[in-house]
Design goal:
This protein is an all-alpha fold and 265 residues long. The chain is 80% helix and 0% strand. Helix 3 packs antiparallel against helix 7. It is rod-shaped and about 90 Å long.
């Protein structure tokens, strides 16, 4: 079900969610009125409206909190990818500065980044990692471990290389952690049921055009909030997701560094 939703274009997902919210909102409020043949007095209507405001306040706070949390997770996932790309570029730069002894390690950096983009990235949508990428990372570590500094200059650069490599591992771990983030099913359940209760209180309204417009407005407003939460709840899933562009563009940066190193000799 979620795979179907995240495969939709943004405009179609918007129509689907808002349409469902409108149907559920109007259906639940007007349906309850017809089903239970509600004919509330003015006093009962006032009590129901007051209760509706109290419930709406609590549910609104909870949904707003959920929205802030998922947006922060989305931004953190973007930052993790940005930092990972920057760390990989710095690692390659340090290896290039070291000299031709790092040619094998530089090749392994390219293989590792390519594996992230082609092998691991599609799996992030399901919160999984790639074994091929894990192997490529281990191979890169082995290649760096085979480098033996000959003097103080080499030792200083090698220390930077290993620091960059360690950072790269950390940013990959952050990216994998964020790929598994998401709102717990319990919070979804509470938010949806609470929203239905808010709309259900509208059953005390007389079915006038104005009241129908008010119910529709409340339903669409709730639908917009849930649309936002759904869209960013999975940072690496769907049309609106974290991009791998920075990682995919690293190859031309690596080529540029190689050319600069070649001309500098």
């Amino acid at each position: 079900m979620t795979d179907f939703f995240y495969s939709l274009p943004i405009w179609l997902a918007t129509i689907l969610v808002l349409g469902a919210a409108l149907v559920i909102g109007l259906g639940s409020s007007l349906g309850l009125r017809i089903l239970f043949r509600l004919k509330p007095s003015d006093e009962e209507r006032e009590v129901a409206i007051n209760l509706m405001q109290v419930v709406a306040a609590y549910i609104g706070i909870m949904i707003a909190f959920a929205g802030v949390v998922v947006w922060q997770d989305f931004r953190d996932a973007e930052n993790a990818v940005h930092e990972e790309a920057a760390s990989a570029a710095q690692l390659y730069r340090s290896l290039t500065t070291y000299g031709d002894e790092t040619l094998e390690a530089r090749k392994d950096v390219r293989v590792y980044i390519s594996s992230i983009v082609t092998d691991e990235w599609p799996l992030l949508a399901h919160g999984k990692s790639s074994m091929e990428t894990e192997v490529a990372l281990s191979t890169l570590f082995d290649a760096v471990g085979k480098i033996y500094p000959k003097d103080n200059r080499d030792s200083a650069i090698y220390s930077t290389v290993f620091s960059n490599l360690t950072e790269l591992v950390g940013f990959r771990r952050d990216r994998l952690v964020h790929s598994q983030s998401g709102i717990p099913i319990l919070l979804w359940t509470v938010g949806l049921i609470g929203s239905l209760i808010v709309i259900a209180y509208a059953a005390v309204f007389s079915p006038t055009r104005l009241n129908i417009m008010m119910i529709s407005g409340i339903s669409i407003s709730l639908g917009l909030v849930f649309l936002f939460i759904l869209t960013v709840d999975r940072p690496f899933k769907g049309k609106f997701s974290v991009s791998n562009r920075e990682l995919a563009e690293l190859n031309w940066r690596f080529d540029m560094l190689d050319r600069m190193a070649h001309h500098g000799r």
